[in-house]
Amino acid sequence: MAKTYSWHPGSDRVVSTWAVSVPILFDEIISSWLVRAALTQGCDPLVLTGELWPKWRVWTIDIDRSIPEERLKTLCVISGISAEIFHSAMLYPIIQQIYRGSPPVKAVWPWILSLGKRNTKLRSGLQYCPSCLAEDNNPYYRIQWRFAWHTGCETHQCRLHDCCWHCGAPIEPHRLLAENQTVSICASCKVDLGRADTISWKDEAKSFQLETDRILQGECGVYLGESISSHHWFELASFFESFIRRVNRNGDEKLLGFINEIGIVLPEHIPIMAGAGIEWLNVQMRECLLGAVWRFLTVDKDRFLQAMKTADLSRQGLCTRKESVPDLLSGIIDGLPDHSVTRTKSQKTHLSGPRPRHEVIRMMKRLERKLALLKNE
Ligand SMILES: [Zn+2]
Ligand SMILES: [Zn+2]
User: How far is the CA of 139 from the centre of ligand 1 (A)?
Assistant: First the structure.
């Protein structure tokens, strides 16, 4: 059966000023196309982008987010591909459906895998399905492989990989050289990424991915019986993702009782540190976490309310003072008992005593991440 596109149709045959024209393939992300365009002309990606934009260090930023119009014009003229098609191969149209308002210029974009610090090679934020790469006539990277909620391949029903199966290096096709000829090999050890083992994909993570895609492609989401927009969907998913991680960190009996009542067993492999958002987690962690988020998003309203009652949940238990409450939950949260306490001066002084275990672990993890970044600079 012929494959069809999910996010954009790509470009048909194009007429470019290059010796060999390189159409953008369906669902291809722009960085993948740039690297393929370079390799097809027999040059290194860094050389091609250096010629296109002489004073722009394009690979030190996340080029998949968006390209300024002036620079995009250069690309359109040389490649023969329209600006409209390039726009659809970038992440900006997607983030507009996730994030209300203009997305941050420098900070991480919510629900888009973070590139980290490119130069440090800690992570690339790019995933792949080995079977897709192996079956492609012209292997290429799909735009959906940058989405944090994508943990598997719908076509091959397997979990995605987020590093080289052989050497563990992040996926960085822009570091390939002309002689490598194809984007489907590891830039570090040159092994064929299409030869990676196929790993099974958990059903609940799959359901979350498919439903999220469906909502982004124009369908309405449903939560506790109400129709909701894509913004609301991501807001709720973020809220429950951070709630599950808080319960995992604190191990609070009452909250554990609540999530068990919903039918969720706290997943293994969830990192204890609070600082790293879902955009930084590896595919295995996200698969576990998003499966649990899916349970929260699909629970029946009566069961949700009953679970709160049985667990004797307070407002503060479900939502800390620092968190903003999704609109759709505010009515429910207002109905919970308010156990807020005003700390007296003498209580505050106790805070200077020994820190709880989860805080110490969080501080250690933060320090380890900083040291790893410094080591790689
Ligand atoms: Zn696949
Ligand atoms: Zn490798």
Answer: 11
Closest ligand, as measured to the CA of 161: 1
Measured from the alpha carbon of residue 165, the closest ligand is 2
CB contact burial 119-133 (16+ within 10 A = b; e otherwise): eeebbbbbbbbbbbb
Give the model confidence (pLDDT) of 189-201 as tens digits.
Answer: 999 999 999 999 9
How far apart are the C-alpha atoms of 336 and 315, rounded to whole Å?
5
46 Cα: distance to centroid of ligand 2 (angstroms): 20
Give the model confidence (pLDDT) of 286-328 as tens digits: 999 999 999 999 999 999 999 999 998 888 888 887 778 888 8
pLDDT of residue 120: 45
**Cα 185 to averaged position of ligand 2 atoms, centre (Å):** 8
Domain ranges of the chain: 30-195, 203-334
Which ligand has its closest atom nearest to the C-alpha of 168? 2
Ligand nearest to the CA of 188: 2
